[in-house]
Amino acid sequence: MHPTALTYRMSAAGDAQYVSQTEKLVMSSTHLPDEIDHNKLAEVALAILSLTLHDSGRVWKGLDWDLMDLLHEKGWIVDPRTKAKSVVLTEDGERLAQEFLRKHFGRRGT
Q1: What percent helix, strand, coil does the chain show, rounded to 5?
Q2: What is the C-alpha to C-alpha distance for residues 97 and 81, in angstroms, rounded to an integer?
Q3: Of the residues 49, 75, 76, 96, which has the fewest C-beta atoms closer than 10 A?
Q4: Average pLDDT, rounded, for the chain
């Protein structure tokens, strides 16, 4: 984190609140299932984002095209090379996504 950068989160009322470095390490998203390891998921997401690294530290918010093509080749998503901003999971892709989420990021004992 850049030393002058501040980290914020949105409160339930919709206003931004400062988050300390200590709190940031244990803070979890309300949109992520409780039964997965959020820290492990964040580490992997960062690693995947790094596949699109360009222009001195910038990354695209989406996934690398080669990675998307690989998911398509495996039959887990429909053709990602459209103008749509989203992609559709196949039946297998939807089932496997949940399986992989539990397998790789499931919290022990939950």
Answers
A1: 40, 10, 50
A2: 20
A3: 75
A4: 79
